[in-house]
User: Which sequence fits this backbone?
C-alpha cells in the first residue's frame, strides 16, 4: 500500500513538472540571433546568465545542475516567429558540435532531433517520426544519426496565449524541452 502511494506521488510530481511554468530564453530577437564564445556564465536565483562579446543570453528556470563551462564554449540563441508564438532555442557548442540545446515554446511539428518532431494527443506530448510515435517522457534517451545517445527531458507543457502585443495568435499547446550529451552515461 505504501509503495503504491509513493509511486502515485512521484507520478503526480513528474506531471506537475511537465505542466510547469514556461521556460524563458532571452538574448536574441526574431531578426538577429545572438552567437559567440561565452566570456562568462553564472547561475543566479535559478536563472543562467551567459555573457558574450555581443550581448547576454538569459535562461530563466535553468533546468540542470550548474557546472563550469569548458573553455571555448560557443553559444547560439535564436528566436523564430510562429503564429502560435515564437520558438526560442539556445545551443551550447564545442567547436561545431552541439552538446546542449534548450527549446522554449515548441509547437506541434517542431523538430526535436534527427527527424523526430513534437506532436500532441489528448494534451500529452509525443515524439513523431513518419507514422511512428512514442510518448515524450519527462526523462528519456534518444540516439542521433551518428549513434550518440542524447538525454532528452520534457520540461513543460503549456497553452500558448491567445493574444500577444495586440496581434491575434493561434491557440496551441506548446512544450519546452532540453536535450544534452551526458558527461557520464547517465541522464
Assistant:
Amino acid at each position: 500500500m505504501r509503495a503504491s502511494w509513493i509511486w502515485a506521488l512521484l507520478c503526480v510530481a513528474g506531471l506537475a513538472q511537465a505542466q510547469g511554468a514556461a521556460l524563458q530564453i532571452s538574448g536574441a530577437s526574431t531578426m538577429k540571433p545572438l552567437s559567440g564564445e561565452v566570456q562568462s556564465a553564472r547561475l543566479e536565483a535559478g536563472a543562467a546568465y551567459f555573457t558574450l562579446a555581443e550581448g547576454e543570453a538569459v535562461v530563466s528556470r535553468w533546468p540542470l545542475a550548474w557546472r563550469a563551462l569548458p573553455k571555448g564554449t560557443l553559444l547560439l540563441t535564436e528566436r523564430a516567429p510562429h503564429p502560435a508564438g515564437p520558438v526560442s532555442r539556445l545551443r551550447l557548442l564545442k567547436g561545431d558540435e552541439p552538446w546542449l540545446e534548450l527549446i522554449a515554446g515548441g509547437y506541434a511539428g517542431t523538430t526535436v532531433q534527427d527527424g523526430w518532431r513534437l506532436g500532441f494527443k489528448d494534451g500529452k506530448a509525443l515524439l513523431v517520426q513518419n507514422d511512428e510515435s512514442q510518448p515524450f517522457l519527462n526523462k528519456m534517451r534518444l540516439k542521433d544519426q551518428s549513434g550518440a545517445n542524447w538525454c532528452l527531458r520534457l520540461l513543460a507543457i503549456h497553452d500558448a496565449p491567445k493574444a500577444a502585443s495586440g496581434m491575434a495568435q493561434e491557440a496551441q499547446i506548446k512544450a519546452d524541452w532540453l536535450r544534452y550529451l551526458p558527461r557520464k552515461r547517465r541522464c
The chain is about 10% helix and 50% strand. The radius of gyration is 17 Å.
